[in-house]
Model the fold of this input.
Amino acid sequence: MIKILELFGGIGSPRKALINLGVDHKAIDYVEIDEKAVRAYNALYDNRYKPQSVIDYDLRPDILIHGSPCQDFSRAGQRLGGKDEDKTRSSLMWETLRIIEHMGSWKPKYVVWENVKGVLDKDMIQSFNKYLTRMKELGYTNSFEVLNAIDYGIPQRRERVFTISIFGNAAFDFSKLQHKPMRHIHEFLEKDVIAPQYMINIPSMLNRIEEFNPEAHKKYRCLDVIEDSCWTISTRQDRCPNAGIIRMKNSQYRYLTERECWRLMGFEDCDFEEVLKEYPTKSNKRNSTIYKLAGNSIVVQVLEAIFEVLLKEDFETDIISDSSGQLQLQLIC
Done:
């Protein structure tokens, strides 16, 4: 049985991935400070967890997965991530390191960290390299790669940095991940969506649709009309830019629905329905909580691909890491 610990666990994408793979596992604990995410997680997995911080935590999982809050690393955020180990949301990643340090001689075999591509930008790379150095000092071999959900069957152009650290000398080989053909987004869309809350009728938003307003690109960041895949599912769809919009008949356009966003993060309709019981949608209103829970998650199918390699490989032997994923990135001015 594989024991996992989910830090900044959100709606439990790692656990969902292991369930889909049929892997015998035990979630020895789940740590999340967002009360709404905790309620959603409990609804999905029939647990009774309470909101809690990762600070001063002590458990012994086989796999530790953390996706510390990304806002301070995001290109759309304030770019504060990791500059101070105590004052930013993303500084919680340092708490993960402290948790591992406090485990003494015993260490999780695998540590998986997911975050936005912004961690590799020149004004953030120092923090990323610091994380790699600290993990190496703790006895881990680090590998990292930018993975796109579109390569794992999901029609969402969502690029995220995955750092996989293995205790000892073994290196994770990202080339072994099994890519899957992208499914067309039509498989994920609801039929005949006519509810008024999803229709785009605000002039300021309509003016940002280039095929509706050919001059839009000269003045604004435009809203992309979805053809076969969408952009990154974020915590809100009613802003520009967003994941993209759907073209309807009679020159009408609509936002992605909450259910569609959950599908595009790799969750099933039965999962969505369980969480909807916790956070019912008000009549003629978009459900901001459900959108946020999806946007803050990790695409399940990407984690499936990672777990398939991690759990099938024998990492007990020494492996000489190749240079592509093991060298620390250097600042480029």
Q: What stands out?
A: The chain has eleven helices and ten strands. Residues 2-181+299-326 form a domain with the Rossmann fold fold (CATH 3.40.50.150).
